Amino acid sequence: MSRKILVFVVTPLILCIGAIFLALRKSAQPEAVFQETDFELCSLPLPKGYPNSWTHAGIEYVKKEYNGYKYFLTCSPYPNYNDDYENPMLYYANPREGNLPPVEFIAYNNNPLQEDPGDGYNADPDVIFVDSSLYVINRPYIRPDSTWVNIQKSSIDSGSFTFDNPIPLYDNKQEPCNFGFTSSFRQTLISPSIIKYKDEYRIYHLATNSYNDNTDCKGVVVMVSDSIDGQHSYKYYTTGTISNCPAKPWHFDVFRYQDNLYAIICAYVHEDPFLEHVPIIARYVSHERKCFQYLAKSEDGINFTAFNKPLTTINSYRSSAFVREDGMFVLYISTLGYKPKGNVSEDGRNIMMAYKPFEQVLKEFKDN
């Protein structure tokens, strides 16, 4: 058989096998509440000199507006894992026509809120509105093992936003956060999420390094204070659990609906759902680290139970959500290596938004 004939026969065969493999791999993905077509790409201007890359989304909705705006979003650029740019940014917007959640945001004119801390990085910003003020928290990290959470309060000066200097709330080495855990455990306290719960302020952390070493999440660490921004005022309260999650929790965000707390869990999927059943093929296929987003519920404000159907299987990092007063669930995700139509991100790290009535979301879990 000549080389030309061989190529003519073999090439279509390889393409056919490849197409079947991709189809089977896609069909093995779990069904999700939101499909790719449900998401819209967000526009978030960056400061001069910053590459186009956005991650670690945090969202806050203000019912009666703050300085004329209702939606406030935090994120941090992380272009190709370069933490020199991983600094907290703030954006704001109003609903679109028909009360649709926004996808085009205005940048705070003094972004970033905090510069690179030096031999380390910033990480995991979050935003909250309480008592007529907007606050942003941030988690700086200094190598080899120092990390803490600080907070910045906003004010309005001549119609413009301004922010105070950051106030440290607690750190992982000194009281009140040095609560008897080992040093290696304290280093895994990531993704702080701040919320007012009953008459106190809480910051929830995940204790995990799952994305980096495939270990299990060690729990949900809860810090409590009676002051939202009192210096070193947050004290260790307890460590809760996340149960029923089909993958390994890596980042999360907490929000309230009616009398319960809910969490958006970014969970690390160690193995491709298709490849884990065909180890022979898995040996020859590249393994991309993936994270899906899951919803979890807490009835006691400490322990969370995940719904086993993902919110989305788009590869994504820390994401954030809330439920509007009309019952609309609004989800902002931070994608990884995902370049939809209109993409300008250099590494596929984008912020995207989807929405659906929350009762409909919950019904999908009940019917699953």
Overall average pLDDT: 88
**Global outline:** globular
| Subunit organisation of the chains | single chain
In the CATH classification, which architecture applies?
5 Propeller
Described by strand count, sense and barrel closure, the largest sheet is: 7 strands, antiparallel
Judged by helices, strands and strand pairing, the structural class is: mainly beta
Query: Radius of gyration over alpha carbons?
Result: 22 Å
Total count of strands:
24
Task: Give the N-terminus to C-terminus distance in angstroms.
Answer: 54 Å
Short description:
This protein is mostly beta strands and 368 residues long. It contains five helices and 24 strands.
Keyphrases for this structure?
single chain, about 375 residues, mainly beta, Tachylectin-2, Chain A, seven-stranded antiparallel sheet, 5 helices, 24 strands, about 15% helix, globular
What's the structural blueprint in terms of helices and strands?
Blueprint lengths: L2 H25 L12 E2 L13 E12 L2 E8 L12 E5 L12 E2 L12 E2 L4 E5 L2 E6 L2 E2 L3 E12 L2 E4 L3 E5 L11 H4 L2 E9 L2 E8 L2 H4 L5 E7 L9 E6 L1 E2 L4 E10 L2 E10 L9 H4 L7 E9 L5 E3 L13 E4 L4 E7 L16 E7 H10 L1
Parallel strand pairs: 17-21
Antiparallel strand pairs: 1-24, 2-3, 3-4, 4-5, 6-9, 7-8, 8-10, 9-10, 10-11, 10-12, 13-14, 14-15, 15-16, 18-19, 19-20, 20-21, 22-23, 23-24
